[in-house]
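Quick note —
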Amino acid sequence: IPVRLLEHLGLSALSLLLALAIALPVGLFIGHTRRGTALATNLAKIGRAVPSLAVIGIVLPVTAAIDPQLGFKVYPTLVAMVILAIPPILVNAEAGVIGVDADLVESARAMGMREGQVLLSVEIPVAVPIILTGVRSAATQIVATMTLGAIFGSGGLGRVLVEGIAQNDDGKIFGGVVLVASLALVTEALFALLQRTTTSAGLRRPDTTRRSSAVAAT
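Predicted structure written out below.
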């Protein structure tokens, strides 16, 4: 179990980092410039609509041809998890920046701040609660869905489920379910704590919390 847990955490963390590297800069740019909003929304909807198992099946022949080992067991699952995580990160980053008070942004510009300074010093700090809501949602989804990769030989806690089904071992199946569910709950709690500790005290208002939850739900 410890080995499978470390595999699960490692693959999940790598998937989340890759998704952040892709979606966060794009979401911040779109939110700041207001350009490409419709395109980003449509791409996010497409990403949500595509089943992760289908993505693994589509990507697998290509990655397996490139690398017969990792291309069959690891890369397809990583691609599927990155695609799964991009929509909530992208949408929430965009919505968080767009939701920053326009007067606050104009005041920063009137003080002589450049566009990059406005984004880094004003918009992102104010948008942190909503941005981290998207990251939290993405992380929880990755942890819970990473089990699909075990069907194709990937590591992680999904192997416990696959082995339990193959051996007709109800105890192992139940144990795998409990482990994955517990890890998803712990992930949710840790990111909720991170969201709270990194949010300015002035932004911890009921209306901000409700707005963050509403954005995550969409």
